[in-house]
Amino acid sequence: MKKICILLGGHFSNALGGAEYQAGCIADALVSTGGFDVHYLARAIDSSYSPKGYRLVQISKRNFLNRHAFFFDAIDLYKILNEIQPDIIYQRGLLAYTGVAAYYARNKRSRLVFHIASDFDVSPSHNNCSPKNLFKLIDRKIGEYGIRRADAIVAQTQQQADLLKSNFGKEVAAVIGNFHPLPDEIIDKREPVKVIWVGNFKPNKRPELFVRLAGDLRHWHGVEFVMMGHPGNLQRYSDMNRKIRELNNIEFLGLQPLAKVNELLARGHIFVNTSSREGFPNTFIQAWMRSVPVVSLDVDIDGLLAGGTVGFLSGSYTGLRDDVERLLKEPDLRNRIGLQASEYAVANHSLGNFKELLRVIRG
Fold first, then answer.
1. What radius of gyration do the chain's Cα atoms show?
2. Domain 193-348, what fold?
3. pLDDT 10s digits, 254-287
4. Range(s) of the chain covered by CATH 3.40.50.2000
């Protein structure tokens, strides 16, 4: 039986981002094959969580220094890898861990599979001179060492594959879209119409634009705007939170478990994304699988939204507002795009994608 280490900054028990969710799906799928001894290594874990079929290992505890970067964990991570002696390391998302894993793999005859988690992973880096950003620069350079020495690299999109080629001169082993289990919720599209936003409050997510959208469309009766996610820095978003309280057509539900997000999407009508940059938003797949069109301000996946079959790529705030309003005005169009989105997601983002990833992992 092959030993495999799944290596991320966090585990979904403590850090439910897109990468952590996908890694959890992969851990479960690897266990189900019966051919792997699976170990999941991360810093951010819930120590009370008991995984089924695999071992969960905390690399280190967060402290004043390492909260700014992951290279502080290098010695601890190397020791853990040395104890486990994995045949394969699957590492997702560019961190200093990428470099440590590559160094271990080169010296111990292991195999490193690196999975790109965002366009940023393979884009040129920029930095200013603050100590915090210096730490992040060191983290990134160690991570880039790992990219250059990985045995195989998997991209989520063709755009990421192209960025890897142009910035690192390397080819991907495969382009594999994220995958989700098929919905088990009842799909119910009765009114009131729900316009949904999911994400953590932070600058690149631009939640304030969704609040602005709700304010601009408050004349639409029978339309509810719903936000879910971590509230982020309360001081930074104090004005935005005040605006949410003032509007009577928007509700912020805070951080919700995945099942709750999917349950709301099953009753939702329009999903809005206001991010400036993302990798492969899992929320797109969650929405599509539940027959919800996606309206995105700037983020697209290999031109899929630009084609207009599963949603719209707006390109500007005015365009975003107009696209949402069009879907509010034309329920037949909304339903048709929702159905196309569901068919696309089931065909391209089901658990069948794991088979292709498993081929790369096995090498």
1. 21
2. Rossmann fold (3.40.50)
3. 989 889 999 999 999 999 999 998 878 899 999 9
4. 2-175, 193-348
- Please give the structure tokens belonging to residue 115: 């999975």
Predicted confidence (pLDDT) at residue 105 exceeds the cutoff of 90: yes
How far from chain centre, in Å, is Cα 218? 30
Mean pLDDT of 153-158: 96
130 — pLDDT class (breaks 50, 70, 90): low
Structure tokens at 20: 């952590």
Say which amino acid occupies 119: D
The span from the first CA to the last CA of the chain, in angstroms, equals 15
pTM of the model: 0.86
Strand partners, 139: none
Closest-CA residue to 146 (of 122, 179, 178, 124) = 122
What was the pLDDT predicted at 134?
Answer: 87
What gap in Å lies between CA 320 and CA 209, rounded to an integer?
10
Distance, CA of 240 to chain centre: 24
Phi, psi of 156 (to 5 degrees): -85, -30
Indicate the burial class of 93 (C-beta count within 10 angstroms; 0-12, 13-18, 19 or more): buried
Provide the pLDDT for residue 125. 74
- Split at pLDDT 50, 70, 90, the class of 131 is low
Q: What DSSP state is assigned to residue 253?
A: -
Q: Which residues pair with 38 in a beta bridge?
A: 4
Distance CA 247, CA 226 (A): 12
Mapping DSSP onto H, E and C, the string for 124-160 reads CCCCCCCHHHHHHHHHHHHHHHHHHHCCEEEECCHHH
Residue 210 CA to residue 321 CA, distance in Å, equals: 9
pLDDT in tens, 315-349: 999 999 999 999 999 999 999 999 999 999 999 99
Q: Is 36 in contact with 20 (CB distance < 8 Å)? A: no
CATH number, domain 2-175: 3.40.50.2000
Report in angstroms the alpha-carbon separations of 159 from 86, 118, 162: 31, 10, 5
